[in-house]
Design goal:
Elements lengths: L1 H39 L10 H13 L6
Length: about 70
């Protein structure tokens, strides 16, 4: 009878441990998705928005600006 009681205690501890582990995993997942939505979820995926200006400056350096040509 004592053996059965110990097995039942072990089973309940294992179930509790698995439940806690699953809850922690869900919390980490939710935290990951929240972070993804606030930082990488932006338009352009976090890339700088001023690429066109830099390209124009490079074109001016390489080929001269249209006003001076």
């Amino acid at each position: 009878m004592r053996y059965l009681h110990e097995l039942n205690v072990q089973i309940s501890q294992k179930r509790r441990s698995v439940s806690v582990s699953k809850q922690m995993d869900r919390d980490l997942c939710n935290q990951h998705f929240d972070t993804f939505q606030t930082f990488w979820g932006r338009p352009g995926h976090g890339a700088p928005a001023g690429d066109k200006i830099n390209k124009l400056k490079l074109d001016d350096l390489l080929y001269g600006s249209p006003e001076t040509s």
